[in-house]
Amino acid sequence: MMSPPSYNDLGKNARDIFSKGYHFGLLKLDCKTKTKSGVEFSSGGSSNQDTGKVFGSLETKYRISDYGLTFSEKWNTDTTLATEISIQDYIAKGLKLSFDSSFAPQTGSKTGRIKSELGHDVFAVNCDVDLNTAGPVLLGSAVFGYNGWLAGYQSQFDSQKSKITKK
């Protein structure tokens, strides 16, 4: 039996009806390949015909299956370098721990986020900590499933303001 979807994925199929595959005025190309050693390469690009904006990206992903580790790095034409390190199903079945970071050399902007996901037959729980300079922001969500019914809740705590900012 599969665990319920995460809170962010609730209603995703309905949203995708209107947002996937209907990109008028947008040219898009995505390419993926995998080496014999298991390194995955993805590159993509898009061109908005209305604004003339062009965007491209290159992503590499390497998995160490014995330890459940995945290393990912993405560079895009907005000069942002994003990295993700994750471990899944190694510490406990259904548990995924990740660290995401990004760096924009032109602006010096940096972001970091620690993410955790736990899935079971009847629930899915997520907890993320945004590591920004103003103070960490804690985001938590849970989805419970029973006989095809799903119920979820999401909340966010801003440590700088010392209050719950999202319900």
Automatic annotation (TrEMBL):
Sorted keywords for this record are: Ion transport, Membrane, Mitochondrion, Mitochondrion outer membrane, Porin, Transmembrane, Transmembrane beta strand, Transport
> What subcellular locations does the record give?
Mitochondrion outer membrane
Gene Ontology MF terms in the entry: porin activity; voltage-gated monoatomic anion channel activity
By its UniProt entry, which InterPro entries does this protein fall under? Porin_dom_sf (IPR023614), Porin_Euk (IPR001925), Porin_Euk/Tom40 (IPR027246)
User: What's a GO cellular component annotated to this UniProt protein?
Assistant: pore complex
Chief localisation class = mitochondrion
**One short Pfam family name for this protein?**
Porin_3
| Statement: the UniProt record of this protein carries the keyword Hydrolase | no
CDD domains listed in its UniProt record: Porin3_VDAC
Q: Which domain of life is it from?
A: Eukaryota
- Sorted alphabetically, which Gene3D superfamilies does this protein's record hold? Porin
Q: Which family does it belong to?
A: Belongs to the eukaryotic mitochondrial porin family.
Mind telling me what this protein is named? Eukaryotic porin family protein
Organism, as annotated? Coptotermes formosanus
